[in-house]
Amino acid sequence: MKPTQTTKKLSALLLCAVLLTACSDNAALNESASTGTNATTADADAVSQAEAATLASLKLDGDIEYDTDDAYEEWSETDATLIKLNGASATIEGEGAEAKEGTITITKAGTYAVSGKLDDGRIVVHVADKGTVRLILNGAEIHNASSSAIYVEEAGKTILSLAEGTDNRVEDGAKYVFPDGSEEDAEPNAAIFSKDDLTINGSGKLVVEGHYNNGITSKDKLKITGGTLAIHAADDAVMGRDLVAVEAGNLTIEAGGHGIKTTKDTEGEEGVIAIEGGSFDITSGEDALHSSGGLLIGGGELHINAGDDGVHAELALAVTGGTVEVAKSNEGLEAPSILIAGGTTTVESSDDGVNAASGDSETADGGQGGRGPGGGGGTPPDMLDGGKAPAAAGEGGQAVDGASPGTGDGSSGGGGTPPEGAPSFETSPDGMPPDGAFGGMRPGGAAGNNTLTISGGQLTVNAAGDGLDANGSIFMSGGTVIVNGPTENGNGSLDYDGSFELTSGFLVAAGSSGMAQAISDQSTQAGILMTYPQTQEAGTLIRVEDGAGDDVLTFAPLKDYQAVFVSSPDLKVNTSYVLYSGGTSTGSQKSGLYDGGDYQGGTKLIDFKTSTIVTWLNESGVTEARSGMGGPGGGGGGFPGRRGGGDGGQGGRKMTEGAAGTENQES
Predict the structure, then answer these.
(1) Which DSSP string corresponds to 440-460?
(2) 243: closest CA among 59, 374, 72, 54?
């Protein structure tokens, strides 16, 4: 029986959320235009087009929908076949299943309620007519020492329902025995393994122990709409080849490889991870979330400790709602195209915080990972060294404006060797020249095509590498972004090699001065970049007041800093301001940003007046950017070993007289 499709489509919900965001963006743009920042329709179009491109690349329309039977349905013993496990055997009351030598085989579509304990055996689903099988785990414990404990060999769809108030456990062994004796490309390879669609629902509890390889694997679509799941896996914890969609539930994941993963990489049919709700506590040796295609977070609460990337997608990543806390990662968020349109996202990274870049963090073969070719088999969580990736080459190591050479922390620049498995400069995953991919390794290269679009939500980044990094361009039309960037001069709080067009929203980015960038001149909201003569201690307040003494910004960076960029709707062109350093504030504080209260005890540094979209400041007051530092709307400038080499003119990376306090103009 084909299940009736619900009218609720996840893609439609998320698309509506972004459309609402776009509407509010347009309103903000119109408001800024009325206050004198000259926002234009073209600016709004540029942002909306970037958002649309990001969503289009997710390929979600029509692909993600929850069927009626994906939701938990009440059941009774009179309507189900009862499978009662008892040590090495099982008794069956009803039709459609048989037990033989510890293996329970289900051959007909229907509802089956499983209870009791199986010491060494498994449940196999083999329904030739491709019907739907519902397995109700009603206080069941299934252990298999030599293969999967639940193996869906053939069925149209299998539903695992966790009965209310029950504790269930599924566990495999560390060594599988295969009929041909070979492990290469062998399956099953997970404690729960399905060749077809798999749904998990209910309100009960399920512990999955995947000692051999993966915890839960579906070679088709995997949906989770309820339940409390604790999944421990030697490699990947939750895997769906085509789709992993979570509507609700509580998931605790410990994985030696990826936490949640899709693998299909066929062009135009790439896998998708879609998180609409639920709570997640993920500890992984590799990426916490890794999609071979698109990845969309529209709700839920995610707490992530990752040995590699926190959230990684091969095509596009969108966050439109929910709470995402990446407490440990190499790179926090990474994808060729990234959209932040809502929610609250916090990132701690040993490299780049948010990285819009092409290139996989591993060699993908579209398979099931694990022990076959291209399999993960990552480092178990208890063997991680704190999530810090091996240091890559720095950003050219050249001192800028008197700053000392920095070693960097393995970000996108540096003239070094790409990570193992990274695409070469000749080709990219889609067969086209990678343009901006690993652009930092190609001095003088063209700007990349990757995009980071921010239209709403709250984004807070603490990065040892670049804070916001785009091998291409950044568009911002709303939201609040706080960046605590690098302390070494080989990276920057903001790093892009195309353009950074800001039309609305609040942005503060503090960090080292060696590679400091501001927004592009074609932005319509004003900003200031202050470079200090010496490094400022962490927690030293940055205070900007207008001519009336009203607060424009009060911010305490988390780490030492020597440069800070600020853009706010309260900053206007042709307006006078005062910059203070230090002091105290009685205002309420969130992520270092103060709201309200009284400010006192600070040292007045400079009075200044804004005359252009970007005002460059040092201890002497307003200064000029170096000439020849990037092309119109692009170019990161020609730093040795750094991305860039634009066409000359406005935009891109601009340096002040800054750290050394000396003027060093380039012709």
Answers:
(1) BTSTTPPP-SEEEEEEEEEEE
(2) 59
Instruction: Please state, in angstroms and rounded to a whole number, the distance separating the CA atoms of residues 318 and 339.
Output: 5
Residues in the chain: 667
State the number of CA atoms in the 13 A half-sphere of 357 facing the CB: 30
Mean pLDDT of 108-123: 98
* Cα gap 409→316, rounded to integer Å: 25
Tell me whether residue 23 is in a domain: no
- Amino acid identity of residue 307, one-letter, is G
Look at the alpha carbons of 362, 365, 369, 370 in this order and tell me if their dihedral is positive or negative: negative
How far apart (Å, rounded) are the C-alpha atoms in residues 500 and 517?
10
Residues 235 and 173: their CA atoms lie apart, in Å, by: 13
Residue range 445-456, pLDDT digits in tens? 467 899 999 999
One-letter amino acid at 649 equals: G
How many distinct structural domains can be found in the chain?
2
pLDDT of residue 445: 47
- Are 355 and 436 within one domain? no
Residue 327's contacts (CB-CB under 8 Å, 6 or more residues apart) are 303, 304, 305, 348
Find tokens 């979209």 and name the residue. 613
Identify whether 41 is part of a domain: no
Q: Cα(558)–Cα(157) distance, rounded to whole angstroms?
A: 50
Q: What's the CA gap between 287 and 275, in Å, rounded? A: 16
Which residues in 530-566 are b (16+ Cβ under 10 Å) and which e?
bbbbebbeeebbbbbbeeeeebbbbbbbbbbbbbbbb
Say if residue 115 is in the same domain as residue 223. yes
Secondary structure class of 555 (helix, strand, coil): strand
Q: Supply the angle between the helices 10-34 and 41-58 in degrees, to the nearest 10.
A: 170
Strand, helix or coil for residue 326: strand
Same domain for 289 and 313:
yes
Range of the domain at 125: 80-381
State both tokens at 349.
């990274």
The answer to whether residues 149 and 214 touch, using CB atoms and an 8 Å cutoff, is: no
Over residues 591-606, the pLDDT tens digits come to 999 999 999 999 999 9
pTM passes above 0.85: no
Instruction: Verify that 101 and 198 share a domain, yes or no.
Output: yes
* Contact in structure between 14 and 60 (CB atoms under 8 Å): yes
Looking at residues 39-66, what average pLDDT do you find? Answer: 56
Is the pLDDT higher at 437 or at 255? Answer: 255
Mean pLDDT to the nearest integer, 471-500: 97
Cα distances (Å, whole numbers) of residue 34 to 24, 192, 519, 609: 15, 59, 21, 21
359 and 479: one domain? no
